[in-house]
Structures are given as structure tokens and as C-alpha cells.
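A quick aside before the break. I want you to see a complete sequence-to-structure record at least once, exactly as it would be stored in a machine-readable document. Don't worry about memorizing anything.
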Amino acid sequence: MSPYKKFWGLDPEITFLNHGSFGACPTAILERQNELRRELERNPMNFLHRTLEPRYDYARQRLADFVGCKFESLTFVPNATTGVNSVLQSLSFKEGDEIIVTNHEYNASRNALNYVAFLNRVRVRQVDIPYPIQKREEVVLPVLKAITPRTRLVLLDHITSATGFIMPIEEIIQECNRRNIETLIDGAHGPGMVPLNLDQLGATYYTGNCHKWMCTPKGSALLYVRPDRISIMHPSVISHGFNTIRTDRSKYSIQFGWTGTICPTPYLCVPDTIDFLEKTVPGGWPAIREYNHQLVLQGRDLLCKALNVPVPCPDEFQGSMVTIPIPADPRKRPPTLPRFEAILQNDLWERHKIEVPIFFWPDLVTRHVRISAQLYNSIEDYQTLADALLEELDREKKN
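That is the input. The structure line, written in C-alpha cells, reads:
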């Protein structure tokens, strides 16, 4: 058992290998959030009207320091999907423009892109990237080859959702900047999993969740906008800030700082979470990332050996998630949700109390299991999964 598991309130009866979907927040941070909620409800007007902005700014500054960007470029959003929508809805497209995306893009972000493209009569060009992959060139070259004089924007996952690998986005961003093409990076899994320096990265826009690998409360994420594009940016929900007459804050800060009444405590807990995990693990955040990385590689090797499948990617493409191909269902049952093989996933839960996602990718036949590694996991968790998977795959053959 991991020595860090005690800091989370996860059910001890389950094997939780799906940190990648929604994250999991330490109990100490949830207690801090409850303190803030109680304070809010004692006097909502004082909390939201008088004291929120300085607290919000402090949390923004701490997060900006954590991800390596200027305070003015960063704002909070509830999730990365909202960040993607905010950027896409803020951009001005003209008929005939093109947006490049890969076949690995997260379904919600792809839907947002398709919707904006439909409204603006923009062409979406999908670049097919293989998986498993072995070389950076298998990602970089097809994307760059797809760029044309009509390309207006390139949308990329930083860490892909269904396939769980780190895209080599740096080279693509650099070349897009050279050609004056904007880049939107869907970094839903980036903060906390990989070291970030957003100012140095150079993407035009970057959005990422804090509630996944940073382990903050649900509903806390960031949107980074390069300084030269801040003036055109609006939240996906337009509220009071659109016609503000204030001059003491940027319009960007005002608009994103208040999009209507919500509970802001997930944002305000970001500094507490950064500090808590920094102090809990010797070596701080670099050690946390390395612990999770090494653990998921061990889990990957164990599962690949048990399933007799090759390792899908070199270690450099893996952060804290790995997606491993598994045999197709001989009964050819259709999916019950887009991309999800809910039948096997539910069997693992109902019969073995294992939480792990099973994805169809790139078609509705080829299946993969995606494992995550967080501080509360241990190598025994992956052995439990391997044993259960072999049992269920054998059951499928017999039935």
C-alpha cells in the first residue's frame, strides 16, 4: 500500500486506477474548502462582493507561478472544456479558414470545434496520428504537413485523453509561430502531471485542469492567453464585465472573474493544494511527478507482460497515464457511450471493484485500457487489474 493513500478519502474497498477522468482531492483540502464554504454562507455578500477579488488574485498569482506565466495572462475557468469554448468563441473566423486537429482530440473539445466551424463555415482538417507511436516525427510531421495558407488555428491535446500519451507540441508551436498561425493547446492533463512554463512554451492559448493532476477540488482549471491576444478574449458566458467602466483591473480579469454566481472555493483552494502536496512528499512537485511517472511505467510493464502485448510508446511519451491495447470483444457488442466500452468497464467494477476506463480507439472495434498513477496508488493495484482483466477476457471468449 502506498504511504500516501491515507491523505485521500478513497473507498479502501475499491482499486482506483482512473485518476485521469476527474482527479481525486486530498481530505485536508476538502476540509479547507468546507471552511471557505461555511465562511461564504455566513455572509455571502461580504465574501463575494468585498473579499473575493484579492483572494482570487492571490490564487491566480500562485497558479501563474506554478505553471510559469505572467499573472496578467492567466485566469480561472471551471474546466478545460470551458477554456476551449472560450477561446473558440472569441476568435473571428471567415469562410474558407481552416482549423487543424488530430484524431486524438478529446471528444468535448472536438464537438466545440465542430460547432464553431459550422457557424463560421470553417473547414476542420483532421490529421490522423497512429497509436501506438514510436517517434516524435509520427506526430510532428503529419500536423505540419497539413498546414496550408488557409490555416487559421491548430488545436492539439497536450496529453491525449483516450490514448494517454504526451504530444510533442513544442516543435509544432514553434513552427506555427514562425508562420503566424495560432495554437490552442487542450492541456486538460498538463498541470501537475508535467512541468509547465507557459510563457516559454509559446502557445497562443493553453487551458488545463487543476482538479486532475494537481488534485484541487472539482471545478478548478486555468486559461492562459498570450499577452498579444488578451484584448480579444471573452468568457464563454458573457456577464456584467462585458460593459465594465472599471479601470483598476483589466477587462480580461473582470470578465473571467465574474461570469455569474458560482462557488469560487475550488479556485481559492489552489494555493492550499500546491502547498499541501509540496510539503507532503519529500522533494515536492518534481518528486510527485517522478513518483507517478515511474509507477505508471511499472504498471504498464506488468500489464503488457500479463496481456502479452508490446509496450505502446517509449517512456518519453508517458506522463502519469498509459493506454494499452487489449483484445477485441469476440461478441462484437456495440459501445453504449462514445469511445467508451462500458460493458467491460462495468464488469471490472461490478465483479472486481476496479475503476478503470476502457476506450474504443480509433474505431468501434479496437479496445484499450487506460491506467493512471497517483500518489495513493501502488504496484499491487496494477496486479489486481491484470488478474481481473485476464479473467474477464477469458470469460468473453467462453461466452
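Two observations worth writing down. The CA atoms of residues 205 and 253 lie 16 Å apart. The two ends are 35 Å apart (CA to CA). We'll return to this after the break.
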